[in-house]
Amino acid sequence: MYIPFDQLPTHARLWIYQADRPLTEQEQAEIKPMLQRFATEWSSHGAGLEASATLLHNQFLVLANNESATSASGCSIDSSVKFVRELEQHFGVSFFDRTRLAFLQDGQVQLVPLSQIKDKVSAGEISENSLYFDTLVNNLGDLQSAWPRPASSSWLSRYF
After folding, report:
1. Is the pTM of this model over 0.85?
2. What is the 3-state secondary structure (H, E, C) of 123-149?
3. What single string gives the DSSP state of each residue in 95-126?
4. How far, in Å, CA of 80 to CA of 15, rounded?
5. Which long-range contacts (CB under 8 A, 24 or more apart) does 83-91 make?
């Protein structure tokens, strides 16, 4: 069962997928009804999930489920991964590249290769206060209150 994203409870579980490039307005217009359709049909062992999906910052696909109503099972999570893979194929974009980290710089999402993080920190291009899009955020409350978050408040803190 589809629930508008902003009407989910703050404890709703999230899965965040980062695109390897910004999605165009046309792509977003095409993806949004696909997301709603997927969330409407998403189920766990035959029980519909109280789910939603949205696009954020033109680059992040977020799936969400109210786990207190019905928990997502391994099979339902597998079906969501299959759906995201289908989006990748259809739009020619990667949502599973974990080798680039996203930061908010000058109002834009900037991707930085993981291999360059130490050098960027040393050069002062990334600081403790740089806003980092932590895709490991796993509930809506954290997304709403601290996303993006200062790099020092994430697993990146070890670099400072």
Report:
1. yes
2. CCCCCCCCEECCCCCCEHHHHHHCCCE
3. S--TTEEEEEETTEEEEEEGGGHHHHHHTTSS
4. 9
5. 83/38, 84/17, 87/31, 87/34, 87/61, 91/23, 91/27, 91/30, 91/31
Closest CA to 132 of 106, 158, 153, 114: 153
pLDDT at 111: 97
Residues 19, 66: Cα–Cα separation, whole Å: 24
Residue entry with tokens 């965040």: 16
DSSP-derived 3-state class of residue 71: coil
- Residues in the chain predicted with pLDDT less than 50, given as ranges, are none
Structural domain boundaries in the chain: 5-91, 100-159
Task: Determine the distance from the C-alpha atom of residue 153 to the mean position of all C-alpha atoms in its chain, rounded to a whole number.
Answer: 18
Cα 117 to Cα 80: distance, rounded to the nearest angstrom? 30
